[in-house]
Amino acid sequence: MRVLGIYETVLYASDTALAAGFYSDALGLPLLEEADELSAVLGLDDGGVLLIFNPELSSAPGRRVPSHGAEGAGHVAFSIEEGALDAFAEELGSRGIEIEREIKWKPGARSLYFRDPAGNSVELVEGELWR
Amino acid sequence: MRVLGIYETVLYASDTALAAGFYSDALGLPLLEEADELSAVLGLDDGGVLLIFNPELSSAPGRRVPSHGAEGAGHVAFSIEEGALDAFAEELGSRGIEIEREIKWKPGARSLYFRDPAGNSVELVEGELWR
After folding, report:
1. Alpha-carbon distance A15 to A24, whole Å?
2. Residue B1: pLDDT above 90?
């Protein structure tokens, strides 16, 4: 009786299509379900999904699933291939996406931070930070 | 240059210790960093982490990392071992945790929903929902 991992991670954006396009274009995540007013679904290679919800609609009562919806900047971190952080930084720069911060945590572990169109804090991580 | 998966998933709770204790006790997630006023860190078997932040503190400017913090119910879904959903339902019930909903999506794919102490919507998923 074991939890295997996190299957769905959620971020909120009032413009779901704009946010989903950002993750699809800038990070190459495939859209598993195109954005509608309520939500969009992006896939990760490890089997997980990133869900984007419009909090005004997802927090409404009476949906088939329990309601949820938050206001304010959320945060997500993606793990990337070893050695790919500089290439990502260049790619983000070429798309006009500002790198808000870069942190070297320890040898072999670095993070880049930027914002999605809804203001959520997005991090790309190379290496292991927590273990 | 590839994104491998989601490394950090964030939920917000004003009482980080209470929320972290819930995920540790009810779902068996190990605490990688004990709760302080700002945050707590729980580990998943697949290498990912669940971060719990007090949004009042994590949204403050001037931190080493970019600020973020949301108010309102968030959502997370965990994947569990095949066949373990009923055992989890029983375990949650024995802890007095109310199952808010159960959904059978299709043969072999089911979800249980409940709330963490901060009101976030937590889902346990058996099977594949999105692919």
Report:
1. 14
2. no
Q: How far apart are the first and last CA of chain B?
A: 23
Give, as one character, the DSSP assignment of residue B30: P
Task: Name the minimum distance, in Å, from the CA of B110 to any CA of chain A.
Answer: 12
Q: How many residues does this entry show for chain A?
A: 131
pLDDT reading at A36 higher than 90: yes
The pTM (predicted TM-score) of the whole model is: 0.97
Sequence letter at residue A75: H
Place A32 in a pLDDT band, splitting at 50, 70 and 90: very high
Helix, strand or coil, per DSSP, at residue A103: strand
Give the chain A residue whose CA is nearest to the CA of B33: A130
Helix (H) / strand (E) element for A2: namely: none
Looking at chain B, how many residues does it have? 131
Burial class (CB in 10 A: 0-12, 13-18, 19+), A79: buried
Residue of A nearest to B52 (CA): A75
Chain B residues within an 8 Å CB radius of A7? 77-79, 123, 125, 129
Residue B43: in which H helix or E strand, if any?
A: strand B39-43
Owner of token pair 């999904």: A49
